[in-house]
Amino acid sequence: MAQTVHLFIPCFVNAFFPTVGIACVEILENLGYRVVYSTDQTCCGQPAYNSGYVKEARSLATRAIQLFGVADYIVAPSGSCTAMLKHYYGTLPLTRKERQDWDLCRNRFYEITQFITRVAGVNHWKGTFPHSVTFHDACHALRELGIRDEPRQLLTRIQRLKLIEMPHADRCCGFGGTFSVKFPELSTAILEAKIASLKQTGAEFVVSTDSSCLMHIAGYLKKHGESITALHLVEVLWQAWKNDGSPPILNGTHAP
Amino acid sequence: MDHNPLTNPTRNAPASGFKQWVRLYLQNSRYRENIRRATEHALEQRRLAVDEIPDWERLRQEGHRRKQQIIDHLPEHLNQFIENARARGIVVYQAPDARTANQFVEQIARQHGVRRIVKSKSMVTEEIGLNAHLQQNGLEVVETDLGEYIVQLAGETPVHLVGPALHKSRQEIGQLFAEKLGVTYTEDPSELTRLARNILREKFLTADMGITGANFGIVDSGRVVVVENEGNARLCMTLPRIRVVIMGMERLIPSEADLPLFLTLLCRSATGQRLTSYVSITGGPASSPSPEGPEKVYYVVVDNGRSRLLQDPHLKKALYCIRCAACYNICPIYQTIGGHAYGWVYQGPIGAVITPELSGDQRADDLPFASTLCGACSDICPVKIPLHHLLLYQRQRIVQRTSGPHSEKLGFALFEKLARHSMLWNRMIRLLGKVQRVFPGELPVPGWTHSRIFPRVEWPTFTQWWQKHKRKTP
Ligand code: SF4
What we know:
The complex is a heterodimer of chains A (256) and B (474).
Chain A: E1 4-7, H1 11-16, H2 18-30, E2 34-36, H3 46-50, H4 54-67, E3 73-76, H5 79-86, H6 96-106, E4 109-111, H7 112-119, E5 132-136, H8 139-144, H9 149-156, E6 162-163, H10 179-182, H11 184-201, E7 205-208, H12 211-223, E8 229-232, H13 233-243
Helix pairs in contact in A: 2-13, 11-12
Chain B: H1 18-26, H2 29-51, H3 56-72, H4 74-87, E1 91-95, H5 98-111, E2 116-119, H6 123-128, H7 130-136, E3 140-143, H8 146-154, H9 170-181, H10 189-206, E4 209-212, E5 216-218, E6 224-228, H11 232-238, E7 242-248, E8 252-253, H12 259-270, E9 278-282, E10 296-302, H13 306-311, H14 326-330, H15 332-337, H16 348-359, H17 376-380, H18 387-402, H19 406-419, H20 422-438, H21 462-469
Parallel strand pairs in B: 1-10, 2-3, 2-4, 4-7, 5-8, 7-10
Antiparallel strand pairs in B: 5-6, 6-9
The structure holds iron/sulfur cluster (SF4).
Iron/sulfur cluster is lined by residues 269, 321-327, 350, 380-383, 385, 387 of chain B.
């Protein structure tokens, strides 16, 4: 029987970037997993946690843990939320019962790129994407989860996709959650260095594993009439399959 | 006028708080350009130096472990260090705060009839405001590190732990020298260095007291170590008859055998050198046991808030710091606004962690929030201080201590209520989407939309799409 993946969709992805979630479903199902999702899901509590509000973060963390059930894996299209679920929940003042519940989940949490490459074992992504892209390392994916090579491995195997590395791809884009509105000028100034780097590449698309960075980057690009488009990695992966007509692996429950 | 010695007396900086300072410095494009160039250069040098060492990771772990041994039992190690120093004929004072430290140094100066003091770079003396204190008491204090000399001439404070004047271009230094020293304008670095050296040489020869900091205090020998590249610190410690070492009480390393490790970590992280041009290890005064050295040697060991860090099981890790400034260089905040915008002596990620405790001043409470928590600092730190976790921890402490800003507190309470109920939560999303659609033009989002478009709620949301297409629940 197919293994089950519980999809965790970041709260703002649900509202603003639903195609990222849809791409996750399509990819996971076509890789042969049964995908489940709880429509009761809201937010993992990271905004409160990163702002120092432990009580509120704890309340949302314990709520989130209850939603995960018995799925084999819990996968999120975000390094940041995954780091919150997998690592930072452990620093919250949980009761013994809550900690036990979390312990039952923590080794099942995966960021989707990691899941695709390490768990599903897919390193050669099939499909075509006839565009130039540059990849931005999202800080939490990179430093909390150690994701560096996996997205690049996937991207470079796509037909006609040209990956152009920007200088200092691993430097922060200046988003930082509530930092971006608490210190808007500073956040924007850091972002401008990132924008300069990605413009140097001349790429058509900027791709990352986290929609939060992309919301920040794309928000600036659009506001300033730049022609570069921001895409989540899973959107590129899914689009690459679609460009070839149909997904190469059709042992999933869902036929396109 | 602000009397807190930790507050940066940089001219032209408004006293109205960190956020205003940030705005001010963001507008200074020349300053920002100099900071960016200098930090990039330092990072590149560091990278080359670290790449030479295959087991760098292991060295970092070892450095962390050695510092942990010290900090976990700091009072015992400190006593041991002081005992060993005293056995060498060194007079040791322990100063609980900045005021006492300054008074000790002033007393030492008076006792020995000192008039002119030469000093080499020392952050702890910046922290306690030593120069100002001594000058107010009629003593002449001359900074002899070139960068430090430049900021002293300019009436500023260090912009960086390692490069106090790295925010100034050659041209600016040339202008400063022409203006303050009455010399002909030049922007040739070696010529500028020569000018400074001529002036400083005279000061060295006529100074009665030399003050240096200490990069390391060695517990098992009572000696101190100073690393530098200009040789000025060595002159400060050998020429004048009175030598004063001022050091934070956490500067200790267990034994002389640990020096190779710590010198490797420090020099490579700070300047990308295998070793700095000068490494001086000094002991007590002349006569005991060697005939060389100053008449009298004093150590002033400063607490000044460090005990507050030490008491906290997490924050005490910040005391492992060996002041290499690598975390400054890699920090997107520091790279963008430079040291002066922080408004405090210690800047960058480590400064943002320790300043609230060291200063005990609520105006430092903004600092831990001025971070994207990207974690680059923790990754680069040669003694593996989990800096971004400490920043997060400081945020929690500050929110607890102050209950946070009122509106923010309410905001998060409301956020939590909504997010506990998916029905309310989804209603809120729908409402936002509707408002965005009826609002003429772009709905302004405070703090966001001045520079970035705020995304619109998409229909269907992912949850709506799922309900329509899947209708499966776990
Ligand atoms: S915190 Fe670490 S990286 Fe920063 S100055 Fe101290 S030792 Fe260097």
